[in-house]
Specification:
The complex is a heterodimer of chains A (364) and B (124). With 364 residues, chain A is an alpha+beta fold. Helices cover 20% and strands 34% of the residues of chain A.
C-alpha cells in the first residue's frame, strides 16, 4: 500500500505517470522527462516533493542536541539560514544527508530523505534525550512544492510580496504565497536557482494551481522525479542509496568538509570519522564522462583502461540531457581517481570508454 | 492508447506489419509511453538471423533499459537508420517513422490482433 501525495488528484488531472518511491506514489513524469529537464534548465519546473520528511527539533537545547546528533555545526547556523549536513552512525557510516533550517533560536526543521524519515526521527529522538530538546516528526503535516529554474523568482514575484531579493541561497523565511502562509526557502536539488515551499497538505493543491497559473507565461512545466534525478546528477549532487549509504563515510563521498571536528563537544561518529579523516580512503567517489548515447547505470562495473581489472562500481548514470553525452558517478580505487584518467564501464557486456572528470558536470 | 487495427502484436508490446514474407517491427504506443523518452536504440544488423522470443536489441530511455525481443524468426533485411540517429521517433511516431527493423519471415509464431492486444493492456 503506497501513500498518495496530498497533490495526488492534481497529478492525475495532469496525466502523470507514477512511481513508487520510498512507500509513496509520486509523479515520475507528466509528459516528456527530457522536456521537463530542459524547462528547469531554461525556464522553470514545478515539483511535488511531499514525500520528503520534516522533523522539528525545538527547545533551549535544540542547537546543542543537533550538534551532537549531526556531523555539522548546526549551532553556528543563523536564524533564517539553512545548512546541508549528515546524520552518521557511531562507525561513521552515513544514515542520511539532510538540509536543516534554523527557523528560530530554539527551533530547527530537519528535512530528511523519504526512505530515511523513520531512521532519522528515531536517531534524533534518541540522541536528543540528554538535551533539553524535543524531537517531533511532522512529515505528514507538510506538503513540499519546489519551483526550480532561472525563471522561478519571477514566478514567485507574481504571487507573493515576499522580499525575494533579501532571501539568499540556503535561507528561508515565513511568507505568504498566493494567499497561503508557508515556509519559503531558497534551496533545491537541481543546480538552478529555485525555491522550496513547505505548506499544509490541505493547501497544497491551491498553491500548486496558483504557481502553475503564475508560471505559464514563464515557461513553467510540472516536472517529475525522473527529471529531478537527471538534474541533480548533472549538478553533481549525491543521492542517498546511490552515492551515500551506511557503508560509506562522508570522506569516501568527497564530502568530508561537512564534518566539523572543530565544533565544541562530542558528536555521534566523531571518533570513527576522526580516524577516517587521517587515512586516505581506498575508494572514492568520482565523476565519469563518456561518449555516444549509451549510459552507464547504477551497479555497472568500472574496469581499468585495459578493460580487465574491476576497479569500481557506478552509483548513478544517465545520458545527460543538457550535455548530450553519458555522465555517471562511481566509487573507484583511489589510485585511479585523478581527473583525466581513462577507464571503461561494462555496459551489459560492451565496453564503454569513460574519463574521470571534475564535478559538477553542469554549473549554472 | 492507440492500437491500429491493421497490425499484429506480441505480449512484449511490439507490433508487426505483415506484408507478404516481410514483417516491419516496432514497439507499441503503450510501450513508448511506459518507457518514457527513448534516448538510444540498439538494433540487430542487416543480415542477422533472429530467433523468435530471443533478445535482438535494446531500447534505452532516460531511466531504464529494455530488451527488444524478436517477435518472429527470420533474417533482418532493413534497419531504420533514422530511428538510430533520432531515437525520439519511437515516442513521437511509434507506428510510423519510429519503426525499428524489417525481417524476412521464416517462421511466424502465433500473434495477437488489435482486439487481443487491447485485452493484454487492460490486464497490464
Amino acid at each position: 500500500m503506497t501513500i498518495p501525495s496530498p497533490l495526488d488528484e492534481v497529478h492525475r488531472e495532469l496525466g502523470a505517470a507514477f512511481t513508487d518511491f520510498a512507500g509513496w506514489s509520486m509523479p515520475v513524469r507528466y509528459g516528456s522527462e527530457l522536456a521537463e529537464h530542459r524547462a528547469v534548465r531554461e525556464a522553470a519546473g514545478l515539483f511535488d516533493l511531499s514525500h520528503m520528511g520534516e522533523i522539528e527539533v525545538t527547545g533551549p537545547g535544540a542547537a546543542a542536541a543537533l550538534n551532537y546528533a549531526l556531523v555539522g555545526n548546526l549551532a553556528s547556523v543563523k536564524v533564517g539560514r539553512a545548512r546541508y549536513s549528515m546524520l552518521c552512525a557511531e562507525d561513521g557510516g552515513v544514515l542520511d544527508d539532510l538540509v536543516t533550517y534554523r527557523l528560530a533560536d530554539e527551533r530547527f526543521l530537519v528535512v530528511a530523505n523519504a526512505a530515511n524519515v523513520d531512521v532519522v526521527a528515531r536517531a534524533l529522538a534518541g540522541r536528543a534525550e540528554k538535551f533539553d530538546a524535543q524531537v517531533t516528526d511532522r512529515s505528514r503535516e507538510f506538503a513540499l512544492i519546489a519551483v526550480q529554474g532561472p525563471n522561478s523568482a519571477d514566478i514567485l514575484r507574481a504571487v507573493s510580496d515576499a522580499d525575494l531579493g533579501g532571501l539568499k541561497y540556503y535561507a528561508s523565511m515565513e511568507a505568504t504565497v498566493a494567499g497561503i502562509d508557508l515556509l519559503l526557502a531558497r534551496t533545491g536539488y537541481t543546480g538552478e536557482d529555485g525555491f522550496e515551499l513547505y505548506c499544509s497538505p490541505e493547501q497544497a493543491p491551491a498553491l500548486w494551481r496558483a504557481l502553475t497559473e503564475a508560471g505559464e507565461p514563464h515557461g513553467l512545466l510540472p516536472a517529475g522525479l525522473a527529471s529531478r534525478d537527471t538534474l541533480r546528477l548533472e549538478a553533481g549532487m549525491p543521492l542517498y542509496g546511490h552515492e551515500l549509504s551506511s557503508g560509506m563515510t562522508p570522506f569516501e563521498a568527497g564530502l568530508g568538509r561537512v564534518v566539523k571536528f572543530e565544533k565544541e563537544g562530542d558528536f555521534v561518529g566523531r571518533k570513527a570519522l576522526q580516524a577516517r579523516s587521517e587515512q586516505s580512503p581506498e575508494r572514492v567517489l568520482v565523476a565519469l564522462a563518456g561518449e555516444g548515447r549509451r549510459a552507464p547505470r547504477a551497479g555497472y562495473a568500472v574496469l581499468g583502461p585495459d578493460g580487465e581489472r574491476n576497479v569500481g562500481e557506478i552509483t548513478s548514470g544517465a545520458l545527460s540531457p543538457t550535455l548530450g553525452y553519458p555522465i555517471a558517478m562511481a566509487y573507484i580505487s583511489a589510485g585511479l581517481s585523478e581527473t583525466g584518467t581513462a577507464l571503461t564501464v561494462d555496459v551489459r557486456g560492451k565496453s564503454l570508454p569513460v574519463t574521470v572528470t571534475a564535478l559538477p558536470f553542469y554549473q549554472r | 492508447m492507440h492500437i491500429p487495427e491493421n497490425l499484429r502484436y506480441t505480449e512484449d508490446h511490439e507490433w508487426l506489419l505483415l506484408d507478404g514474407e516481410l514483417a516491419t517491427v516496432g514497439v507499441t504506443d503503450f510501450a513508448q509511453d511506459a518507457l518514457g523518452d527513448v534516448v538510444f536504440v540498439d538494433l540487430p544488423d542487416e543480415g542477422d538471423a533472429i530467433v523468435a522470443g530471443e533478445a535482438c536489441g535494446e531500447i534505452e530511455s532516460t531511466k531504464s533499459v529494455s530488451e527488444l525481443f524478436a517477435p518472429v524468426a527470420g533474417e533482418v533485411v532493413e534497419v531504420n537508420k533514422a530511428v538510430v540517429d533520432a531515437p525520439e521517433l519511437v515516442n513521437s511516431d511509434p507506428y510510423g517513422d519510429g519503426w525499428l527493423f524489417r525481417v524476412r519471415v521464416e517462421e511466424l509464431p502465433e500473434l495477437l490482433d488489435a482486439e487481443d492486444y487491447a485485452v493484454v493492456l487492460k490486464e497490464a
